[in-house]
Amino acid sequence: DAGVIQSPRHEVTEMGQEVTLRCKPISGHDYLFWYRQTMMRGLELLIYFNNNVPIDDSGMPEDRFSAKMPNASFSTLKIQPSEPRDSAVYFCASRLTLGEQFFGPGTRLTVL
Amino acid sequence: AQSVTQPDIHITVSEGASLELRCNYSYGATPYLFWYVQSPGQGLQLLLKYFSGDTLVQGIKGFEAEFKRSQSSFNLRKPSVHWSDAAEYFCAVGGGGSYIPTFGRGTSLIVHP
Fold first, then answer.
1. Euclidean distance between CA atoms B51 and A111, whole angstroms
2. How far is B18 from chain A (nearest CA, A)?
3. pLDDT 10s digits, B77-105
């Protein structure tokens, strides 16, 4: 099993640009999570899906952030427009209903 | 609401010494508890979990943790630390129907040779 796959691994962009982060969960997992990790705030849950449906997006910081899961094998997290304070490592994780979370390697985003 | 406190931001130990990382949680019912490890530049990896049963849980890489309900704690231990154990360690608590975990701020483990 390839595990949770995230792309890109690194992203450098300029303020105001649109950023799209991608995630492929482990096949068969029915929960998908997006996290953001920073030194200041630690690991924050942004949003999670169950069976492709967004369940709780209360952690999404602003309307500039949006997430979709068009099918069971793909999810995106979009930031538009991006700002320097969005610089962080973004993790995707997936799991079965009663199981442990498996994390992807993360995307390190730098907004200049 | 559930919450997790990891009181130690950094812990420094010598290689071969024993280790204990502290975790205190707040949850109104029986919690599900987890310890994850994050190596630099990597995602989080599960070390061990407690759902029910024996309160002493064995995990990977020689780690164990003990659930103490009376103290609301789930401390992580290892009898002899290796240099490769240097990493960030996260405790998490979850519960309810979907048990979405809440993570602590993490403890950074530094291992001296």
1. 40
2. 26
3. 999 999 999 999 999 998 766 678 889 99
Class of residue B8 by CB neighbours under 10 A (exposed 0-12, middle 13-18, buried 19+): middle
* Residues in CB range of A2: below 8 A, 6 or more apart: none
Which residues from chain A sit within 8 angstroms of residue B100, using beta carbons? 45, 48, 56
Cα angle A46, B100, A21 (rounded to 5 degrees) comes to: 30
Does residue A61 sit in helix, strand or coil? coil
Q: For A40-92, how does the pLDDT look when each residue is reduced to its tens digit (9 = 90+)?
A: 989 999 999 999 999 999 999 889 999 999 999 999 999 999 999 999 999 99
Q: What is the spatial distance between Cα A72 and Cα B9, in angstroms, rounded to a whole number?
A: 37
Q: How many CB pairs under 8 A join A and B?
A: 38
For residue B26, give both structure tokens. 């707040």
Interface of A with B in 31-90 (CB under 8 A): 31, 42-43, 45, 48, 50, 55-56
Instruction: Give the pair of three-digit tokens for residue B94.
Output: 């979850």
Contacts A43 to B, Cβ<8 Å: 44, 90, 103, 106
Q: Can you tell me the distance from the alpha carbon of A20 to that of A9, in angstroms, rounded to the nearest whole number?
A: 12
Please state, in angstroms and rounded to a whole number, the distance separating the CA atoms of residues B113 and B104.
28
